[in-house]
Design a protein that fits this description.
36% of the residues lie in helices and 26% in strands. The protein is an alpha+beta fold. The chain has a single domain (5-140), classed as Jelly Rolls, CATH 2.60.120.10. It has a 4-stranded antiparallel β-sheet with strand order 1-8-3-6. It has a 4-stranded antiparallel β-sheet with strand order 2-7-4-5. Strand 4 (54-58) and strand 5 (66-71) form a beta hairpin. Helix 1 runs antiparallel to helix 4 and helix 3 crosses helix 4 (116-145). The chain is globular. It starts with a helix and ends in a 9-residue tail after the last helix. Residues 9-78 form the Cyclic nucleotide-binding domain.
């Protein structure tokens, strides 16, 4: 499933705040197969994808990691950086080579504290992404482990 974070960002952040956020970015390249983040690790950065795909996965005891969602162009990778204790709740791996904007989480949080309007918009944007990711995780886990999947009851 390819999600649609980019429209959320454009819809949520006004142009000045988008520009301010992008002013904190640095462009990076990531090779396919690279683990961007590991569930339980320290959430100190995040990315917005320019090209390529990332698989979000989660640990399920006794099984291989379960892919929850696949992200592409314009998507936010990582949201745990915004909420204490800044620990990744999911893992992510580059499925293909990536080009992305990478952000230092501490710098973005500092900007959020210094400019409360900016901070409120960032929190709203990340909150929308978080709500979508939780729904995707629920649906995927029901598909895998519920007797009738996530479809209508029979």
């Amino acid at each position: 499933m390819i999600a649609t974070t980019a429209p959320r960002m454009a819809r949520t952040l006004n142009a000045n705040h988008r520009d301010a956020l992008m002013g904190l970015a640095r462009q990076v390249g990531v090779e396919a197969g690279t683990r961007l983040l590991e569930e339980g690790g320290h959430a100190d950065r995040f990315w917005i994808l320019r090209t390529g795909t990332v698989a979000l996965d989660m640990h399920v005891p006794g099984r291989r990691p379960v892919v929850i969602e696949t992200l592409g162009y314009g998507e936010l990778v990582g949201w745990s950086w915004l909420f204490k204790p800044y620990v990744w709740q999911l893992s992510a791996e580059a499925v293909t080579a990536l080009r992305a904007y990478e952000f230092d989480a501490a710098a973005v949080r500092e900007r959020c504290e210094a400019d409360t309007d900016f901070g409120r918009e960032i929190e709203h944007w990340v909150g929308e992404v978080l709500a979508h990711r939780l729904l995707a995780a629920r649906t995927r886990l029901l598909d895998l482990y519920a007797p009738y999947g996530s479809g209508p009851p029979r």
